[in-house]
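Batch manifest, entry 17 of 40.
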Amino acid sequence: MLPTARLHGAPDGLEVSSGTLSGTETTAAPGPDGPCVEADDYRGQSQPKAPAASRPYEPVEASKPARWPPSARLCSVERVEVLAGPARLSLDEIRRRVGDYLSGTAVIRATLFGSYARGEADAFSDVDLVLIEPTTLPFVERGLRHLPLFELGVGLDLLVYTPEEWERLRRERNPLAERVEREGIAVYERPGS
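Output type: structure tokens
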């Protein structure tokens, strides 16, 4: 799936139609006459890019090299703002990374919910995670014990509850607890719990 993007500084009406967004200054697009060159002029060559110092944004990683259709034009743009794209982590990667970290903690269970659990995650989705852990820390300080989880490479919404708190939320039919129970996927369970 190609990212959907908005091109800044491109000729009017220019939109991404094919190819890969592999740099921030150029992309393949059909376009009106203007500051574009025919794709045939670059056949077999790498996509032209501005020097790295002039590219303020990180390029979008591409799984395949760009292949321009014959009707494409290569156009210089000021920057590419990615609006949508595939999820940055797989469910297996989340399980592995969360499990690797939590195996050395007192956490009893970790449940993934939200867009990643529903299979609807995209390039801008965060990871929503509920941890069940015995603790006496105030609720707002509990996530600080798990700072390595914030290094997943995507945003993280982390909620840490004691077993008693979570059981009470379930009994009271708390909307968050019901949602987690309905769509959640266990990504870690402490052995023997």
